[in-house]
């Protein structure tokens, strides 16, 4: 399938990073550098089926524009699936509908970056998109844990980066920073590294520190991608044979919901979902579940947070929920807990990602009785 794109050579930046690394924060920092009045586009890939980010942006699930940023979400799986159809449809519509001056793509942290790079290197995108440096976000707090830095999926993001932005490193000692640099160099000797944190910016590889962190990031938007240009020289017709670690996960559902009369294994269109709704699925060692509840369901905020933090081996929790403290946006990673008040939404949405173990040799299984979890969540309703 060749998408009918009229525009050509749209600068495009791929922002990758492992689950919970801080990609969304970096996207916001890049958007902050946007010239006034210039239209940009953002393609967000949420692995879950609920579409939480889109619910916060506007009432339209598929596409909306705010502050000269045209945004489209692809939910319910990884856009680097072998069919390529979700990516092609989303990109062609986003470009043809909004004619942006620049495109940013944020894939799910569960994606394998090599497969997405392979897709964006295909001939039918080479005239439509002008691929800039692949920016990868790495959390130093995650890297400090052996289960992350020895995990193939975590390493894969570093291997396929043109630019590496390292955040959350304030607690690292000088020796640990040197060890991190050596670890990065072993995986990708050519990567361009930026150390960045809100109260401290350190840049390497001849970035002028006087220009500031924002300017350093902005400069990466105009640098061509060595990783993608290298892939473009490969015969894209040859099947990719070297995928290891976290693979792109399928869109199929494998569980019941609070309300799912069809139960046909497909995620239903947003407008057809009758609330309350719950799904869950499992792929490899990943457990994913999500709930959508009517806006009039008000949950006890303190009990909800306690319940979420007690979930077994959770890796990511996102939501926008009507609570006793008002409408709250929830964004939890193992090293960052964030909640903030937001405006009233059409419904409450909550999504969780659990993992039995990041260490592949650990066969410990997380066994979940989802009916019990449903009852526990409903018991918090005021």
UniProtKB/TrEMBL annotation:
Domain CobW/HypB/UreG nucleotide-binding residue range list: 11-190
InterPro entries in the cross-refs: CobW/HypB/UreG_nucleotide-bd, P-loop_NTPase, Zinc-reg_GTPase_activator
A Pfam family this chain is assigned to: cobW
CDD domains the record matches: CobW-like
Comp. bias intervals (Polar residues): 254-264
Stretch list, region Disordered: 254-273
SUPFAM superfamilies assigned to the protein according to its UniProt record, in alphabetical order: P-loop containing nucleoside triphosphate hydrolases (SSF52540)
Listed GO CC annotations: cytoplasm
Name the record gives this protein: G3E family GTPase
Top-level taxonomy: Bacteria, Pseudomonadati, Pseudomonadota, Gammaproteobacteria, Moraxellales
């Amino acid at each position: 399938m060749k998408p009918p794109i009229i525009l050509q050579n749209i600068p495009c930046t791929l922002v990758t990073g492992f689950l919970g690394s801080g990609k969304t924060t970096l996207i916001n920092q890049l958007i902050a550098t946007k010239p006034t009045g210039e239209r940009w586009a953002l393609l967000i890939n949420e692995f879950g089926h609920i579409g939480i980010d889109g619910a916060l942006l506007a009432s339209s699930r598929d596409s909306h524009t705010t502050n000269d940023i045209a945004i489209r979400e692809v939910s319910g799986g990884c856009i680097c699936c072998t069919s390529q159809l979700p990516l092609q449809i989303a990109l062609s519509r986003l470009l043809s509908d909004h004619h942006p001056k620049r495109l940013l793509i944020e894939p799910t942290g569960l994606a394998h970056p090599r497969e997405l790079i392979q897709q964006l290197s295909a001939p039918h995108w080479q005239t439509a998109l002008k691929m800039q440096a692949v920016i990868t976000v790495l959390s130093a707090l995650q890297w400090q844990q052996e289960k992350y830095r020895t995990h193939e999926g975590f390493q894969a993001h570093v291997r396929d980066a043109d630019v590496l932005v390292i955040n959350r490193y304030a607690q690292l000692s000088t020796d640990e920073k040197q060890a991190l640099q050596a670890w990065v160099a072993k995986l990708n000797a050519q990567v361009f590294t930026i150390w960045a944190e809100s109260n401290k910016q350190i840049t390497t590889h001849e970035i002028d520190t006087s220009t500031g962190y924002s300017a350093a990031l902005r400069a990466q938007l105009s640098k061509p991608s060595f990783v993608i240009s290298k892939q473009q020289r490969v015969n894209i017709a040859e099947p990719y044979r070297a995928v290891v670690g976290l693979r792109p996960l399928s869109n199929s559902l494998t569980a019941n919901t609070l309300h799912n009369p069809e139960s046909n294994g497909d995620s239903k269109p947003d407008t057809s979902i009758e609330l309350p709704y719950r799904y869950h699925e499992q792929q490899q060692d990943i457990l994913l579940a999500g709930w959508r509840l009517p806006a009039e369901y008000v949950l006890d905020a303190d009990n909800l947070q306690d319940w979420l933090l007690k979930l077994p081996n959770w890796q990511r929790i996102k939501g926008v929920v009507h609570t006793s403290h008002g409408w709250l946006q929830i964004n939890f990673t193992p090293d960052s807990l964030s909640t903030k008040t937001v405006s009233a939404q059409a419904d409450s949405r909550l999504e969780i990602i659990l993992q039995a173990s990041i260490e592949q040799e650990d066969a410990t299984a997380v066994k979940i009785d989802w009916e019990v979890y449903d009852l526990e969540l409903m018991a918090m309703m005021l």
